[in-house]
Write a structure and sequence with these properties.
Length: 579
């Protein structure tokens, strides 16, 4: 019987007819399901489109409740704590042609309390000691040269005295003797010639003998003239010539002596220099204090300097600092976009990364007029150094700590505050989109005051308790904005069809007060609110109060809790050190 059932079914209902009937039933089911889905989709579309048409202006909009609070505008930068009265202990060992740097052989441990005169650092002086030995040999040679030059000068001076008082007088006397002898010879020759002339007249002397006596007279005259001329030459020419020669010799000997003295002095000073540098290799404390190493972290333009044995030290390089803990300050580098806001005398709040519970007060004492040097490898951002003195420095404050400095630029108590994104520039004025009902907003002209790129002070136009839209540009098409005069059509305000800031070519898009003043120094920093939340407006008839953005405006309690506001538009700047 079991084998007969399938054959019977096949006979009554052939396989082809059964498959066609099953497919027909399945197709009808899917068709009915598709119709039902289309009906549901149409109903949902009609409902949503209808609702959007009735109240689309506020659908998804975020509002903020206008409140009163303390407006605070701070310039916040990172800095480095340092002593206002540092005693810098530096290397006084001067470099020479042979030695340019000196290694540290020993250094006192950091943090130790020292007294004036205590040894802090010992530098390697072996090269200086070798130079001192060679210099002693050079000094010995210069001393020998000095003695020789002294003797030569004395010999030249003696030669001058010898000639003037000795040789010249001797030669003059010899010539005078020759003149006297020539005169006597002439007198005798003249007498003898006169006698011979008388004898010749009597015929006792021949003419030849008389001629010889006359020749003797002429010879004696010539000898007298020669002796007299020789005396004049000795006095007028020879003496002057010899004196000039001797004076020249004295001058040369004097110059040689001065040169030898100068050379000896130079060699002595050079030896004293090496001896002094050897002494300077032992560095002592000029005053009492706590030892702080003057380490320098290197970058691409400056080498790293770590105070430890083996480190090379150049001339006048600071090795150790003895800070005065009674007068501490913070060295801050301020971005050029905010430096115009900072002036000497402004108060500041200081917090330390190492001590979360320590809040310090200070005063800006100095702001440099010129920027710090810019590294050609780093960011091309100009920064200006400023000094903030710390009031009543606690003992745990030490140099080198990283500090967050909030310089108080402006503060206004009990001000009407709204977020800057709730302000819509329109022409030459500013507007806010104020919620007046569940599904309606109205534009209100507002008078704005100071802002810190987070909140703006409103003078007129809105009141505490009003709800303003945080996206007013999205609602421009849903409200009636006042007509703008022709001169303001290409101004900063949005026009119809420009709610997103996309206007005609060349037209600048709308900007909020914080945005339009980004180039100004008073809009670069913001205070960090304690909380900022937002929610949509609840349906009409709900007993629940509209949930709005809740913001802390740095009241007195919050100032004590968190006095430092962080600049949210820029990352914290690196800490600046003493230059």
């Amino acid at each position: 019987m079991a084998s007969m059932k399938p054959s019977l079914l096949n006979t009554l209902f052939p396989r082809g007819s059964r498959t066609a009937r099953r497919q027909s039933m399945r197709g009808g089911y899917f068709a009915k399901a598709a119709i039902v889905c289309l009906v549901i989709a149409g109903a949902a579309g009609y409902y949503y489109f209808g609702m959007a048409k009735k109240g689309s202006s506020l659908h998804g909009a975020t509002f903020h409740e206008v409140t009163k609070g303390d407006f605070v505008h701070d310039v916040v930068e990172k800095g480095e704590v340092e002593s206002a009265r540092n005693v810098d202990v530096m290397s006084l060992v001067r470099s020479s042609r042979e030695v340019n740097s000196f290694e540290i052989l020993w250094v006192i441990e950091e943090g130790k309390q020292v007294e004036a005169g205590d040894v802090l650092v010992r530098l390697d002086s072996s090269a200086l000691e070798e130079e001192a030995k060679l210099q002693r040999l050079d000094l010995s040679g210069s001393i020998a040269g000095l003695a020789k030059a002294q003797n030569e000068l004395e010999a030249a001076q003696i030669a001058m005295t010898e000639y003037v008082d000795g040789l010249f007088v001797q030669e003059l006397r010899e010539i005078d003797a020759e003149i006297t002898f020539a005169k006597e010879t002439l007198r005798r020759a003249e007498e003898y010639y006169a006698y011979s002339s008388r004898l010749a007249a009597k015929g006792f002397v021949t003419s030849l003998q008389l001629e010889g006596d006359r020749f003797a007279v002429d010879k004696a005259k010539i000898e007298l003239e020669n002796a007299t001329h020789k005396r004049g030459v000795l006095i007028n020419q020879t003496k002057e010539k010899k004196i000039k020669e001797l004076e020249s010799a004295i001058g040369v000997a004097t110059a040689d002596l001065e040169s030898a003295k100068e050379r000896n002095s130079i060699e002595q000073k050079r030896l004293d220099f090496f001896l002094e540098q050897i002494k300077n290799c032992t560095i002592t404390a000029p005053a009492a204090g706590q030892v702080v190493y003057a380490n320098e972290r290197g970058n691409r333009e400056a080498s790293e300097f770590i105070v430890e044995p083996g480190t090379s030290v150049r001339e006048r390089q600071t090795i150790i600092r003895l800070p005065d803990y009674s007068a501490m300050q913070v060295h801050v580098l301020i971005n050029e976009s905010r430096v115009a806001m900072v002036q000497a005398g402004m108060r500041a709040t200081i917090s330390l990364d190492a001590f979360d519970d320590v809040k310090l007060e200070g005063t800006v004492t100095k702001v440099n007029e010129y920027p710090e040097p810019i590294s050609r490898f780093g960011a091309q951002v100009k920064r200006y150094a400023a000094v903030v003195s710390i009031d009543g420095s606690p003992r745990q404050i030490k140099p080198g700590l990283t500090a967050n400095v909030a310089i108080h630029v402006e503060k206004e108590d009990n001000a009407t505050l709204i977020p800057v994104q709730a302000v819509l520039p329109y022409g030459d004025d500013y507007y806010c989109m104020v919620q007046v009902s569940e599904d309606a907003v109205e534009p209100r002209k507002v008078e704005v005051g100071s802002n810190n790129s987070r909140f703006v002070v409103v003078r007129n136009g809105v009141s505490p308790g009003d709800f303003v839209s945080l996206s007013p540009r999205d609602l421009v098409e849903q409200v009636e904005m006042p007509e703008l005069p022709p001169e303001q059509l290409n101004s900063k305000g949005p026009q119809k069809g420009e709610a997103t800031g996309e206007g005609k070519p060349g037209r600048r898009g709308p900007q909020s007060p914080g945005e339009e003043n980004n180039s100004k120094p008073d809009t670069k920093l913001v205070e960090r609110p304690s909380r900022d939340t937002s929610a949509n407006i609840p349906p009409k008839g709900s007993d629940k109060r509209p949930e709005v953005t809740e913001t802390s405006f740095n009241q007195e309690a919050s100032i004590e809790k968190d006095p430092v506001r962080i600049a949210e538009d820029q990352p914290p700047q690196p800490a600046g050190g003493a230059q």
